Amino acid sequence: MHKSEEEFLKAYNVKNFEQLSMTTDILLISVSEEDTDNYRKNASKKMSILLVKRTDYPYKDKWCLPGGFLNPLTETLEDCSKRILKTETNLENIYLEQLYTFDSLKRDPRCRVVSTSYIALVDKNRLNDKLNNNASWFDVTKYQERDKDILVELDNGQEVILFTLSKVLKESTTNKYEYVIKDNNSLAFDHPLVIVTGLERLRNKIEYTDIVFNMMPEYFTLGELQQVYEVILGKKLLDPAFRRIIASRVVKTNKMKTGGGHRPSVLFKYNKKM
Amino acid sequence: MHKSEEEFLKAYNVKNFEQLSMTTDILLISVSEEDTDNYRKNASKKMSILLVKRTDYPYKDKWCLPGGFLNPLTETLEDCSKRILKTETNLENIYLEQLYTFDSLKRDPRCRVVSTSYIALVDKNRLNDKLNNNASWFDVTKYQERDKDILVELDNGQEVILFTLSKVLKESTTNKYEYVIKDNNSLAFDHPLVIVTGLERLRNKIEYTDIVFNMMPEYFTLGELQQVYEVILGKKLLDPAFRRIIASRVVKTNKMKTGGGHRPSVLFKYNKKM
DNA sequence: TGAATAGTGTCTGTGAGACAATATTAT
DNA sequence: ATAATATTGTCTCACAGACACTATTCA
């Protein structure tokens, strides 16, 4: 006996199958400026990420990435991430990019939850005072890779969060590694994985995309831009080399940044290409 | 009134919330050899992907990527992909890598289904005659990018599948594009998206990872390896340049490949580094 | 022998790394 | 004047692109 497609769809009942919940977790990254006492010195920069304090079980009172459950009937995962970002930062139009889908069986003690994580990038100047009060920016004060271990330290000025991951060989054919949480006292769920995966991704993409300009204000000096690169890559760059690489991606304006107790700097804009 | 964590988890009932279904879709990629009449000529190569014919609604009798529903209680998405690959190809130990999670609201007419896609790479020599009989290899006979359109043609020797995608500007800040299906008669679901996303990813990763060796047999000539690169990148490479680039990633063996009506070629192996 | 592929040599231009030198400001 | 950053000049080295050349097989 043959059914038509219409009949088939009508008879199809989702509830006959096991279903599950999905969440999104958002790694919101920005670059913050440290105050300086010396009037001549430029503000030094740190990479920082947004964490929120959990108010309920599981992981009650622990810090975690902003995130929440997907409404399967009305939202895409990106919609969901936008909604959560809006709640935590009061901002819209934040750059979002899908990072990875984490799905180990026991990552949430409540039930099976698969979580698709997103990277979000923002220029910190956009959001002073707009944060939800359970949210806090943590500077990435350490990000060390030694042997196969990655040590990360986060600091919001009052609390320090430390965790360690190991890179474990997964595929022996080609050398492919996966991260495993080794030591973690303070962060909820598998969020150390999300953070490290995201920071690595950002490091890679900053080299071959224009992603970095999502973290910059409209006008910026090349020195500022270079600092953002240095903070993300975790190493110093040589000025002339940096300027050569970046030259085609920025446009000089006739504005200057003055007042630094040293030579003023030309302000540039992002050079959007078609 | 305070609950303990234990009480909280006990009282938590997943079924109070809307849930959804997840699937995996697998883009299994390999490189096939075309027979040649000239005894001197080496076999030319084509990139090919595995499709299966749907036996039921929706998209009955259309081709699609191998895939299936996740069992949320017992499987990770990768487990699920492995299970499906085993069903379709009778192979285990295939290289798998998470590609992207597709989640538009109407991608499946039955219900809300979020699908995490995986790239799988295999050396075709491993699987002659092992295919499930609803599965078939399609050569990628065309992959053209013109303006903002991508035209793909797949051919299994009996049927030709054609589809077109458009790259549509998504973020105006940084120029970020997303693919939109423009024209598609033959492929089920949003699988044209998966295919194009996956082929682009492979193209990128072949340049900076050792991923390609998952598609190679244990012993191969540099000519064969170069052909695989050329087929994936869609362009010819210069011999000396290729040999320089690849040199550190392969090891010469004392085996030779002879019988080609021309100078024999040294067989190499993948050089696994720690 | 010759068609075909395998493999090497080498010139050239580009571009990154490195370091030096000059320019300009606020105190 | 000086500390600090801004900006440019230029040398060198590594390496990819390009092309030419030699080597070797088997019908």
Task: Describe this protein's structure.
- The structure is a homodimer of 274-residue chains.
- The first copy, chain A, is α+β, with helices and mostly antiparallel strands and 274 residues long.
- Chain A is globular.
- The first copy, chain A, folds into 2 domains: 21-141 and 190-205, Nucleoside Triphosphate Pyrophosphohydrolase (Alpha-Beta Complex), CATH 3.90.79; 216-270, Winged helix-like DNA-binding domain superfamily/Winged helix DNA-binding domain (Arc Repressor Mutant, subunit A, Orthogonal Bundle).
- The first copy, chain A, starts with a helix and ends with a strand.
- Helix content of chain A is 21%, strand content 37%.
- In chain A, a hairpin with a 4-residue loop joins strand 9 and strand 10 (176-184).
- In chain A, strands 1, 2, 3, 4, 5, 6, 7, 8, 9 and 10 form a 10-stranded mixed beta sheet that branches. A 3-stranded antiparallel beta sheet of chain A has the order 11-13-12.
- The first copy, chain A, has 5 helices and 13 strands.
- The longest helix of chain A is centred in the last third of the chain and has 18 residues, at 191-208.
- At the A-B interface, helix 1 and strand 5 of A face helix 1 and strand 5 of B.
- Chain A binds a DNA duplex (27 and 27 nucleotides) through helix 5.
